[in-house]
Design goal:
This protein has helices spanning about 5-25, 40-50, 60-70, 90-95, 105-120, 140-155, 175-190, 205-210, 220, and strands at about 30-35, 55, 75-80, 100, 120-130, 160-165, 195-200, 215. It has about 220 residues and is of the alpha/beta class. It has one domain: Alpha-Beta Barrel (TIM Barrel). The protein has an eight-stranded parallel sheet. Helix 2 links the parallel strand 1 (about 30-35) and strand 2. The longest helix has 22 residues, at about 5-25. It starts with a helix and ends with a helix. Bound molecules: pyridoxal-5'-phosphate.
Length: about 220
């Protein structure tokens, strides 16, 4: 795509985010995290040049490679994938702005140990498996608030900022909506939570209308 054509294309995505957030309130601000997992450093630079700063990756090794390749740029890197315990140190070396997918108490405890040893903190979101799907990671909705509180109490080096969820895998808009509403309810109940990360290329407008204030957009932004 030519640059001007590309810009028009991105403008359209931004307009869609804008009209969805205005349905909630004039004051409802939504942050876009550009998920670059399908994209090259060149494509990331293209988005950077038109103002995008927050980028997300779902594999630790890709996050490392791209953040190093683009270290000259003032980018904000998010880690949105699931984290294996043996990759914790690698993730901490990259020091991302936000880890979206803290999906168990055990992982939190392991992360706490490593953070404490390094005398560091990390901003994190707890992942909710809102539609209780086998294929997905995350806390079950009924136990999410309790575990959120337990992590806050027991893991002082983890700064919990809120929740993250992937919408239900369904063609039925009502089912997807229900999964977002479940996550939003949990978000409202978690003390101090300020980030509700939900919505991807196929469902971000619905997610925003259900209260999301952070969308993770991959294919639609990178035209894949
Ligand atoms: C890939 C991915 C996205 C972006 O998906 P698209 O449908 O391409 O927008 C968002 N969140 C997570 C956790 C992902 O792995």
């Amino acid at each position: 795509m030519q640059n001007t054509e590309y810009k028009l294309y991105i403008d359209d995505v931004i307009r869609r985010v804008e009209s969805a957030r205005l349905k909630v309130s004039d004051y409802h601000i939504v942050k876009i995290v550009a998920v670059s997992k399908y994209s090259t450093a060149d494509e990331i630079q293209k988005l950077y040049k038109i103002g995008q700063r927050a980028f997300g990756e779902n594999k630790v090794q890709d996050l490392k490679a791209k953040s190093e390749e683009l270290s000259e740029l003032p980018l904000e890197w998010h880690f949105i994938g699931n984290l294996q315990k043996n990759k914790i140190n690698n993730l901490l070396d990259i020091n991302p702005a936000l880890f979206h997918a803290l999906d168990s108490l055990e992982l939190a405890q392991e992360l706490q140990k490593k953070l404490q040893a390094k005398n560091r903190t990390l901003d994190c979101l707890v992942q909710i498996n809102s539609a209780k799907e086998e294929s997905k990671h995350g806390l079950m909705p009924e136990s999410a608030c309790g575990i959120y509180k337990q992590i806050q109490d027991e893991c002082p080096n983890i700064n919990l900022k809120g929740v993250m969820s992937i919408g239900a895998h369904s063609d039925d808009k009502e089912v997807i909506k229900e999964s977002f509403e479940t996550t939003y309810e949990i978000y409202k109940q978690c003390a101090g939570a300020t980030i509700c990360s939900m919505g991807m290329s196929g469902d971000f407008e619905l997610a925003i209308e259900c209260g999301s204030n952070m969308v993770r957009l991959g294919s639609i932004l990178f035209n894949k």
